[in-house]
Structure formats: C-alpha cells, structure tokens
Write a structure and sequence with these properties.
mainly beta; seven-stranded mixed beta sheet; 2 helices; Jelly Rolls; 13 strands; 34% strand; 231 residues
C-alpha cells in the first residue's frame, strides 16, 4: 500500500466492495468544483487542460490535505497586495504560485527551461509526501484518456492519481528537471518541462473526481494535466 494519507471519506469507501466504490465515493464526497469571480465554468472539462490550482472547494480533509495550514506562495512569497494572482486562495493550505516573466533575474522564462510555460499560469508548489488534492472534472464521454503534465521537479519524485476514490495509476515517476548548469540555485524549482503521456486513466462520462497524491520526494511544481482521448 502506498505510504500516503487518504481523505476520511476515501478511507471509509475502501471498506466497500470494489464495484460499489466509485458510486459510493461520488455520492458521499462533499467537495465542490472550484469557482471564483474569474473562473465560473464548473468542473474542468476532459478532453482538455485541467489546472491543479483549481482543485476543489471544501477545505482541509475534504478537498485537500496539506502538511501545514500556511499558503507559502499566496501571501508569503507573493505579497498580499490585492493582486488576484498574489492572493490566489491565500487562506487555504495548498501552496500556490504563478509563472513570472520579465524579471531582472529571469524566473519562469529562464534559458534552462525544457519548455516555456504560459505567462501568469497558476500552479501548486511546495509539495510534500502525504499531501493530496481533489479535482472534479467533467468527461465528455466514457473511455480511456492519456494525460501529459506541465511541471518542475528539483529532485524527482513520485505521484499517483485516484479516480473516484480508487487508485488508477500506481506510483508515477516524475523525472527531475534539475540542471547543474544553472548558476542560480533557487531556480532549480523553475525549470519547466512536459511529461508526455505521464499516465492513462479510464473515466465515466460526466462527473469524476481525480485525487492527486504526492508520494515521495516532493519539491515539485504541478501546473496542469492535459487530457486527450486515448486509443
């Protein structure tokens, strides 16, 4: 069994027969799709790009688990100055930041990127083993979907994905993006790359809940999963 913490409702669901698990999880899950003054599109659509920073509403133990209640991005690294990006989900434990371009010392538009990320893209960072977050999605049709991931990883590590309360992928190895040629030490957390076809999952048509678990190493920035219909 993977050494990770599970949502309380997930732990209870694991005691049910396997064929009852998905329906039981969806009927008892208390989290809600993310929405705010700028994003009001409901569950994120698959096929499509699913942003990690738009994890569900519901708080600690329901929509996510974080090792401490402080958001180390919004309001800490990024000053609480009224700016939407700087204060994004500032009162929640999941640590959020965004890609920054055109700084005196290049940050997320640096020459050591494997790919250049979108500007002002929100992402989940400061990840630690045992943490998890849920994302409610809406699948266009039943079937298997392949997912790429935009990420950084200073030290490598593993994650896994649950679908409706059930492990769907097992441990997924995240390759390190560390580049010893970069002379700026803190920028090892800002070398962006795409993990092509990182995982494959089977989804029911309509509502599904994905749980992203940080299993080992941590120190990853997770921006999005890009889902395409599998073959």
């Amino acid at each position: 069994m993977n050494p990770r913490m599970l949502p309380l409702c997930l732990t209870a669901a694991l005691m049910l027969p396997a064929n009852a698990l998905p329906q039981s999880f969806l009927s008892t899950y208390k989290g809600l799709p993310y929405r705010d003054t700028r994003y009001q599109d409901g569950p994120q659509k698959i096929p499509g790009r699913v942003l990690c920073a738009y994890y569900d509403l519901g708080g600690e133990g329901v929509a996510y688990h974080d090792t401490d209640p402080q958001n180390h991005g919004s309001g800490e690294l990024n000053p609480a100055d009224g700016n939407y990006l700087n204060e994004f989900r500032i009162h929640e434990g999941v640590d959020i930041s965004y890609t920054k371009f055109d700084r005196k010392v290049p940050i997320d538009d640096n020459p050591f990127n494997k790919v250049v990320p979108p500007r002002d893209l929100l992402y989940v960072g400061w990840t630690q083993p045992g943490e998890w977050f849920n994302i409610t999605v809406d699948a266009e049709r039943e079937g298997t979907y392949d997912a790429d991931s935009l990420y950084t990883s200073n030290r490598g590590g593993t994650i896994s994905i649950d679908v409706n309360g059930k492990d769907a992928t097992g441990p997924l190895q995240i390759p390190t993006t560390n580049d010893p040629a970069d002379p700026v030490a803190w920028r090892q957390w800002h070398h962006w790359n795409i993990a092509s076809q990182l995982f494959k999952v089977a989804l029911s048509k309509g509502r599904n809940v994905l749980t992203v678990h940080i299993l080992t190493a941590g120190n990853m920035n997770l921006a999005y999963f890009d889902f395409k219909q599998g073959h």
